[in-house]
Amino acid sequence: MLSRTRVALPERLPPWGVAILESHHADDFSMEWRTHPFLKLVYVLAGEGVLCLGDLEQSFAPRDLLVIPAGVRNRIVDTPGRPSSLYVLCIARRLIRFEPRCEASLGLGRRPRSALLANRAETRLRRLRFHHTHGADEASVPMVAEALGLLHLVAVASRDARSQNTNGPGGQKSTSASDMARYIAYLDEHFFEAEGVDAAAKQLGISRRAFTQRFRQHTGESWLRYTRLKAIDYAARLLRETEVPVTAIAFECGFGDLSTFYRQFKARLGMPPAAYRATLTGKPAADQ
């Protein structure tokens, strides 16, 4: 049975600068105004209410992600009969001092609603809770890594939303189309860690069949062929710009089997990898 709280939990940062709380509110929950020196992300697991940021008030619902900047007066007011359950992530500002634009890029308050963002955020927050609960002395590094990764996801989602808004009403896309576009943009840079069609469909909150149809509509390719083409294109770039051995490039691009890599590379570019490098650089690869 969940332990429910009538007041907001204390928020304290450990030495490594990342804290994760899980707060389940009672029906008579009440929160005083707070101002804190750290950045805070709040993910709504259940319930409804209003986030108050100074004079700004924004409603929230399950799967919303809320950004509360450092130094801003804030509190949460639950809707009567709909007490909220929240993940609360607190991040020391010193962790992002190396990137001055980071805080501004996150935006303020409720982030654009997106199944893709919600699923990725919830996954990272659950991992943070796991590290917090079971990591003991080894929790610091994975918690900082997960927190910074989540900040990146929020910043990208906020940037994409601003980009759509500047296109005017006629440029607006449906939420599902926007999520698919964001997923493909992410896949373009993370093809080497793609987990498969089922995992991708789950991230977008749609069925496998709907995912495969929409993915092909956007790219003209199946998911597997698209990721393989991205891997081959990246391999070609490494062959052009580095002296990394062909075998190492194959594994870096996600090919566990060299014969598959050679076959697909030749099908894409018309020649084997070593010959491709030699043609462009005049330096035959040592491992051809």
TrEMBL record:
The keyword Transcription regulation applies. SMART domains: HTH_ARAC. It holds the Pfam family HTH_18. It comes from the Bacteria. Residues 181-279 form the HTH araC/xylS-type domain. Signal peptide: none annotated. One of its GO terms (molecular function) is DNA-binding transcription factor activity. InterPro entries: AraC_XylS_family_regulators, Homeodomain-like_sf, HTH-like, HTH_AraC, RmlC-like_jellyroll, Tscrpt_reg_AraC-type_HTH. Keywords: DNA-binding, Transcription, Transcription regulation. PANTHER family: ARAC SUBFAMILY (PTHR46796:SF6), HTH-TYPE TRANSCRIPTIONAL ACTIVATOR RHAS-RELATED (PTHR46796). This is HTH-type transcriptional activator RhaS.
